[in-house]
Structure formats: structure tokens, C-alpha cells
Amino acid sequence: MPTIVFIEPDGQQKSVTSVTGQSLMQAAVQNGVRGIEADCGGSCTCATCHAYIDPQWAERLPAIRALEQDMLEFALDTNAHSRLTCQIQVTDDLDGLVVRIPHAQA
Question: What is the top-level taxon of the source organism (predicted)?
Fold first, then answer.
């Protein structure tokens, strides 16, 4: 089971074990990661699961789709590493992935 490292807005790190096949959003919510609200439950309609993916992991993730890109326009403080965690499925290859939560979501 892959371990995902979430870094909360205050710098606190939370390593969570995720089930392969669930979304990063589900892993965060189930483990009480602060700043991932996920108001829509993972249907890519709210952008409250916005996070920054550590750049070294970017190439291992699926390409961003148009719907996710459109929803990111509603998120605060986006940058080149912004993704919606509901759109990233955890795989064994993501063991050790680092995900940072924006300060705007504290």
C-alpha cells in the first residue's frame, strides 16, 4: 500500500497509507489531512481539494484533463504544480508522493 506524504499549510507532515485505486482526495479526507475539504465528494465540481504536487512527481501523474483545468480556475493560489486531488488515482508507483496543501486552504 503506497504511502503519501501530505504537508499541511503550517508545515506539519502527515504520512498516510493509501489503498491503491482510491483518489488522493479520499486518502487525505480519510486520514484527517487539514485543508482538503472535498465538498463535492470527488466529482470535480468544487476545487476544494486543490493541492500542489511536488515537482519531482509530476511526470508520474496522469495528464491534467480539461475539466480539472477548468475547475482549477476557481481554486485560490494556483501554480504550475496545482492539481485537484480528486482526479489523481493512487497507484503503487506513487509510493512516497509529496503533496502540499495551499495556505489559502488552511
Answer: Bacteria
